[in-house]
Specification:
nine-stranded mixed sheet; binds 1-O-pyrophosphono-5-O-phosphono-alpha-D-ribofuranose; about 30% helix; binds uracil
């Protein structure tokens, strides 16, 4: 195994698979879509945080002393890619409520499929934090690649990407551009279509979360 290469983790948990089948369905409405995106984000976060550093501590219970472990590594930050990444924030904060949250606004130019940046506000100390980038869709990979670059430019060294659905093209592109970044996603789909949409995917994640179509 190439140790410099980020790993790709595809979730096969039955709860995630079931929830995915609901958000993929074209009839699913905005309320249910939003709720389930958030639930899936919580489940992905559970797995994506598996390697957080812990250290031993002794805790006095009402009955005796317990050897426990508490988080002891770098503080955490979440960075959703606007808009659709916003739909994952609350679900991840359910598990790591003290994380700071930055925002990167990118939209894909429909003609070129290249990401266009319109907003970036990151915590001042992001360079000292472990960062989780959130975006439901990893299609060509352009948006994730740029977002990770902006975060690295601020000094962050440990970055993990969390997606709900990824295309093989997007995974390959992120691995090439950022070989140190691990990718966690709920599903790896077949391919991209001519418009850069993931097939079978779930359509436009931002529109489905915010009800804009
Ligand atoms: C979607 C999605 C990703 C991006 C993925 O955002 O949420 O950010 O496309 O595509 P890529 O991997 O080819 O870059 P979109 O540009 O539709 O913006 P929106 O979230 O504001 O709708
Ligand atoms: N963005 C989306 O929202 N969906 C796709 O399938 C690809 C990019």
């Amino acid at each position: 195994m190439d140790c410099n290469k980020g790993q790709v983790f595809i979730m096969d948990h039955p709860l995630i698979q079931h929830k995915l089948s609901i958000i993929r369905r074209k009839e699913t409405g905005v309320k249910e879509f939003r709720e389930i995106v958030s639930e899936i984000a919580t489940l992905i976060a559970y797995e994506a945080t598996r390697n957080l550093q812990v250290s031993e501590t002794i805790v006095a219970t009402p009955v005796g002393l317990a050897k426990c472990h508490e988080l002891s590594g770098k503080k955490l930050a979440l960075v959703p890619i606007l808009r659709a990444g916003l739909g994952m924030v609350d679900g991840v904060l359910t598990l790591i409520p003290a994380a700071k949250v930055g925002h990167i606004g990118l939209y894909r130019d429909p003609a070129t499929l290249k990401p266009v940046k319109y907003y970036c506000k990151l915590p001042n100390d992001i360079g000292e934090r472990e960062v989780f980038v959130l975006d439901p869709m990893l299609a060509t990979g352009g948006s994730a690649i740029d977002a990770i670059r902006f975060i690295k430019d601020e000094g962050a060294v440990k970055i993990t990407l969390m997606n709900i659905i990824a295309a093989p093209e997007g995974i390959a592109a992120v691995q090439k551009a950022h070989p140190d970044v691990d990718i966690y996603c709920a599903a790896l789909d077949e391919r991209l279509n001519d418009h850069g949409y993931i097939v079978p995917g779930l359509g436009d994640a931002g529109d489905r979360i915010f009800g804009t179509k």
